[in-house]
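Anyone able to model this chain together with 3,4-dihydroxyphenylalanine?
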Amino acid sequence: MSGPNTSFDPKQVAVLGAEAIATMVAEALAAVSAAGDLAVLKGVRLAHAGDRSPLALANRDIGALPPAAKAEVGKRVGEARGAVKAALDSRQIELERARDEFALAEEFIDVTLPVMRVPLGARHPLTTVMERICDVFIAMGYDIAEGPEAEAEWVNFDALNVPPDHPARTMQDTFYVGSPESGVVLRTQTSPIQIRAMLDRQLPIYVVAPGRVYRTDELDATHTPVFHQVEGLAVDEGLTMGDLKGTLDHFAQEMFGPGIVTRLRPSYFPFTEPSAELDVQCFVCRGASIDNSEEPCGTCGSEGWIEWGGCGMVNPRVLQSVGIDPAKYRGFAFGMGIERTLMFRNGVTDMRDMVEGDLRFSLAFGLES
Ligand code: DAH
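re: yes, here you go
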């Protein structure tokens, strides 16, 4: 039987000797001070103080030592681990402070700077629809034409073959600028731009003219005294109603979707002959709601068609009034209301929403119409 083991072989504990432990500590401290940020330090902590670090393994080995060596080596390893932990902790605090200082400097907000008091606006859907319409016609080679909103009565009415006693000319319908004798009105339609285009431009003429117009209506859900129309005019040799119809069908498709066509119903306008009401096929039901009580359509009232505007072949008398020879040239023209277009195209039920300027209304349309 052997007696109690009171001595130990120093070779047996060489791996836990002062030199080896000092090297582990030195390596650990070097790694700690080299750690430039918290993520690196985390790795250093794992490598030098984690469960599988050299010092942790050394600590584990103490148990296998002869009892006489345990106390001495245990103290040495314990101090070494303590030193490494202290270095890690103080580096941790240093790096955290550096991180916080950096964040404070970087994320500095000057709360005394003036705020942006005016919220960003939105484009009004009337504007975007008019631009869209202009784009469609520009793509077909049309120019954009303009005219004044305070217009000569002669241009707004007489040149367009509207007779002097026409009810539209009364003060019940038309705003006269100054007195009714002034000869100046707020234009009641964009059709006078046709006259200006024909007076100002070289033939042939292909123009589209969006604009604001005025009538003496009270503002309610379906009327507004200030509204917008878009006018189209083509004057060239040999134009026919077929050209008008083809142009309108293309326009309808660009506005309402592929395959949508237009329908012309005989009508009367003083400035066109023949004249027609212009209907567009319902782009929601495409006619499927007609006589079909199963699937009523709210957009067209189950009519299958929606009234959109007026059109026709330019009346020869109008061509004559601006000095164009009707024997050589023919024209077609059309006009429609923009507010009305928005109402059925975008489901706006109250015209007042379009004039009140509430941003929430415009924002709902996004940037495009
Ligand atoms: N100016 C007409 C209106 O305000 C609309 C219109 C009808 C314009 C026929 C046209 C047209 O160019 O040919 O009701």
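The first strand starts at residue 143 and ends at 144.
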